Amino acid sequence: MKFKTVLIILLVFASCKNEEKKAEIATNDNVVEKQIEANLDLEVYDFAGFEKFLNRDDGKIHVINFWATWCAPCVKELPYFEKLNAEYGNENVEVLLVSLDFPHLYESKLKPFIKDNKLKSKVIALDDADMNTWIPKVDETWSGSLPATIIYKNNKRKFFEQSFTFEALETEVKQFLK
Amino acid sequence: MKNTFKLISVAIIVLCVSAFTINKTTLNEGYKIGDVAEDFSLKNVDGKMVSLSDYKDAKGFIITFTCNTCPYAVMYEDRIIALDKKYAAKGYPVIAIMPNNVSVKPDDNLDAMKQRATDKGFTFPYLIDKEQKVYPKFGATKTPHMFILQKTKKGNVVKYIGAIDDNYKDASSVTTKYVEKAVDALLQGKEVEQTETKAIGCSIKA
Questions:
Q1: To the nearest whole number, what is the mean pLDDT of chain B?
Q2: Which member of A61, A74, A93, A123 is catalytic?
Q3: Residues B182 and B157 sit within 8 Å (Cβ to Cβ)
Q4: ipTM, 2 dp
Q5: Which of A8, A114, B37, B76 lies in the 20 to 30 Å Cα band around A42?
Q6: How many other C-beta atoms lie within 10 A of the C-beta of residue B136?
């Protein structure tokens, strides 16, 4: 009897741990406790205000990911950017997650998403409807599909209109670490 | 003599390599402005196959790659319906093509497309690129992604690639209606001024 109880307790612990390890980012559909108002401050920029993030001359490696909560492949790769931020934060790598969510969904979708998934990287929102003007300023080759990522250090930069695995992302960042 | 031979061989090699490279780029990136678009035969929500050649009286086409599941595409649905209402009678009908892999996006399957077309009262065909062979030819990367074709003697020539207008959020705040401006120019026998524009969209799911 006692043995059984211990076994159950152990199992429960093990499953918890497992869950913690996975800590997969929830999609819109399964965000729990949606009703809880997320009281976090969100910086919102138009492109003129945002442009400074693309041109920092500070010797750091900036990894800027354009995403949105409605973009499934973006949500899938977010944990890799979070991992990068956690593992390379000490090595002068700075991750910035730029949300292109719709402004009327900042409160109901974006903020709860940031909170529920405990995003540690800096998240800002870009709200500028005149896309044809600003998209080419991010990168001439960008057609406008999400996700998209820029990695830059001073004058060296690379643009990616694609999804990443953690390994692929790490490989690209390492090119800048050299 | 030997030198000349060497020079010629080098020239031939360079030519072959560059020809191959140029070819490859075109294949990867899809149609450019001025290219002739190949016709296709895709299934419509009513079960019938649709091709550009079915439209004997058309002067051209407003082709949109769109889907049920992308919020940007949804925001533009009413404006696409309006485009068809305005331009189909003038010879530029809308043709909508759903390019996503439905095993990745089940809500974009043919039944869901049918439902969407009925609910919204689409006045134009809503075709499924089931084998996903048409959108790469166009070089479409996202939904919504617009292509305007003009029917000419040499075929359907690509005249415009890009966005519908410059404000996805609010149709009443739009300052430039890119697609309308382009079609108006073509109808007046003029060249399109702004042939390419960019906009955010959902990546097409391969």
A1: 90
A2: A74
A3: no
A4: 0.78
A5: B76
A6: 17
